[in-house]
Amino acid sequence: QLEAEVEDLKSKEQGKEKVFEKLKKDSEVRWHRDKYKKVLNNYDTYYKNIAKMIREKEQKISELEAMLSVMN
Known about the structure:
mainly alpha; rod-shaped
């Protein structure tokens, strides 16, 4: 009977190790997913700023062209 209990406990211990490995992998995946979201957000912000700068510079160019056409 004790041997059967020992075998049962050993199988539970092996199950614990498998669950621990799975949880470790899941937390690593979650960490990478969160990191990916941050990187994606940074790129999104970066490209929004580029688009904003393009619009501002195009506006400035059109203003300068308008002033030049008035002067001529």
